[in-house]
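Reviewers asked in the last cycle whether our approach scales beyond single polypeptides. To address this, we selected a multi-component target totalling 490 residues and predicted its structure end to end. The input consisted of the following lines:
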Amino acid sequence: MFSMTSLNSKDTEFPPEAPELAGFRGPHLAVDVALFTIAPGADRANSRLAFLVVRRLDGLATGEWALPGRMVREREQLSTAVETALKEKCGLTGIEPKQLRVFDEPTRDSRGWVMSVAHLTVQHWDFVEAALAQNPNLGLGYVQLETRFQMELPDGQKNLPFEQDLIVRYAVQDLQLRYRAKPDPDRFLGPTLTIYQLRKVHEAVLGKELDKDVFRRKMEPKLEKTSEMATGTVGKPAELFKRKS
Amino acid sequence: MFSMTSLNSKDTEFPPEAPELAGFRGPHLAVDVALFTIAPGADRANSRLAFLVVRRLDGLATGEWALPGRMVREREQLSTAVETALKEKCGLTGIEPKQLRVFDEPTRDSRGWVMSVAHLTVQHWDFVEAALAQNPNLGLGYVQLETRFQMELPDGQKNLPFEQDLIVRYAVQDLQLRYRAKPDPDRFLGPTLTIYQLRKVHEAVLGKELDKDVFRRKMEPKLEKTSEMATGTVGKPAELFKRKS
DNA sequence: AAAATAGTGTCTGTGAGACAGTATCGG
DNA sequence: CCGATACTGTCTCACAGACACTATTTT
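The resulting structure, written as structure tokens, was:
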């Protein structure tokens, strides 16, 4: 929208900045993403909450597994930077990142003054599985929710570099808070779902088993019937529901 | 902590930045604060939730009332920037700002690429009242909580500049969410309080009257008795409580 | 005494939690 | 048939909400 007015500026499409800003050079800005998915466990019943990690190929902490992230480019929005990072590093698209908070410790990055805006997003397992199969530099991290927040990373790595352990922890708490109140608000599942699928997702997020009946009665008023039935499962076919309003 | 290692760098106490960061100049970064207080109403019983605004003396939107804010300085932490802004512009100290979120619309500030990190904090009325009395460029804004989020600003101003209406709205929702669960978590009140005072604060934050008995029974298990009594009020003296753990 | 506020007793409705039972499918 | 899953009935307990009542102070 500025392209017509910037023919005399050097190589940007934005007008020159007001001189009073020159005295306040900002920090370098990065985005980091905790991308969660529900990974199937050994049997169908025991899925687990997992997050995506990438092997760092350059810069600090080369070789270590870390959250996907990226430096923010000129005039770029944060959500765009997150989407680009996931597309370029992981080949994942169609993401709606949610901002969590800024990590601003002045010494968190030894290369200079870098702040990081942490984001949270969620992706279906099918897409994550496909991305993992195509790229050996992608992996999954798990959080031990029962014990006191211990992590499992590929290659036996114990911690994430920078302050990213904090990001994961913060993100899990954020997820759990919202999954207590509403049925799958971040959409690990598609538009239609059975109560069984929904319960398995909530169990994975909260890290504990939920009572079958209590869960049904708490969720049903927040769901809408579709009069369609699920197929391809053992047992009595379950009704498919939609999320309400 | 870097002062000993930077004798050869120009005029900063930090070491020079790694060259790979040079290609990623970040945005200019500002902080904005929604500072809330409980302002007394016409009679003692009707206090209202209010937020502090300052008259802009320079830059864009000169003369308008806006949230206090400030550009972040080199290697400064966000919370420090907020504290400095409130101290310099409003003479208020002893603040613990809580980060809300980044507002990153690329065109929100016509002077250039500026992001703002919105913060929320709370201050006792006494301090705010003193600051207002000393500085004619300070004022109070009110939110109509009963209707659909309308604002009252000094001089009949209807909206805040930049995206600050959004900040206030976001901040109020954040406050309300936390005040549903816990007794005065942000400490509008001092360490000891009566249940009456507590209820009046919660009513101001939530914008509706609360049932006397229900409120007492919900809050008492989260409070600790002090066996001291409040003085200087009409009626039966109330017991003073402390917040638990 | 009247006004004002503090605090308690008690009834009701709702809903979580727990458990057992019935229904309907695939193999 | 059996195993597995979907769904329903029902009991208990806790607690929010509502109302009335008693208690203790100031004016």
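The first helix of chain B runs from residue 78 to 90. We regard this as preliminary and will revisit it once experimental data from Aim 1 are available.
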